[in-house]
């Protein structure tokens, strides 16, 4: 997903889970108003992949590995493009990612530390109206 983005637009981090039984990969934007994007998998299996963005909320993908990885790519590109937002409320956080083609994915996290209801609309990683024409995530 980083291929073709301008230098220093984002950094990629990976680490083992606390128990050492899985891997977490995070894409952190340089733009402080853009959303972080993350993926978690258990070691030895890509059957279940958890996706998160911004300050929380997860979406679990399971099933065909190739289909799941393609969806992770599309979700990541949507976050990079700024097509995501989160609503913080009394009972939790509700995140929304709009894919190309208009499909919407909802991510949830219960019991937010936020008390005040607000909506955070994230900016693109790259600050022009669209990604550079040379941007090709494949």
Please tag this protein with its features.
138 residues, four-stranded antiparallel beta sheet, 9 strands
Spatial arrangement of strands, main beta sheet: 1-2-3-4-5
What gap, in angstroms, lies between the N and C termini? 7 Å
Largest sheet: 5 strands, antiparallel
Subunit organisation of the chains: single chain
Helicity, as a percent range = 10-25%
Query: Averaged pLDDT, please?
Result: 83
* Class by SSE composition: mainly beta
Shape: globular
Low-pLDDT residue spans: 129-138
Description:
The chain is mainly beta and 138 residues long. The protein has one domain. The chain is built from one helix and nine strands, in the order βββββαββββ. The chain has a five-stranded antiparallel β-sheet with strand order 1-2-3-4-5, covered by helices on one side. The protein has a four-stranded antiparallel β-sheet with strand order 8-7-6-9, with helices on one face. A hairpin with a 4-residue loop joins β4 and β5. The relative contact order is 0.21. The C terminus is likely disordered.
């Amino acid at each position: 997903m980083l291929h073709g983005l301008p230098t220093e637009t984002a950094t990629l981090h990976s680490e083992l889970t606390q128990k050492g039984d899985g891997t977490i990969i995070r894409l952190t934007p340089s733009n402080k108003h853009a959303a972080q994007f993350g993926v978690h998998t258990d070691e030895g299996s890509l059957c279940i992949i958890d996706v998160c963005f911004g300050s929380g909320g997860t979406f679990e993908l399971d099933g065909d590995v190739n289909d799941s990885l393609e969806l992770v790519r599309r979700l990541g590109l949507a976050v990079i493009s700024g097509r995501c937002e989160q609503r913080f409320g009394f009972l939790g956080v509700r995140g929304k990612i709009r894919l190309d083609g208009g499909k919407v994915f909802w991510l949830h996290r219960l019991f937010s530390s936020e008390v005040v209801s607000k909506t955070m609309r994230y900016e693109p990683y790259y600050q022009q109206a669209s990604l550079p024409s040379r941007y090709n995530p494949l």
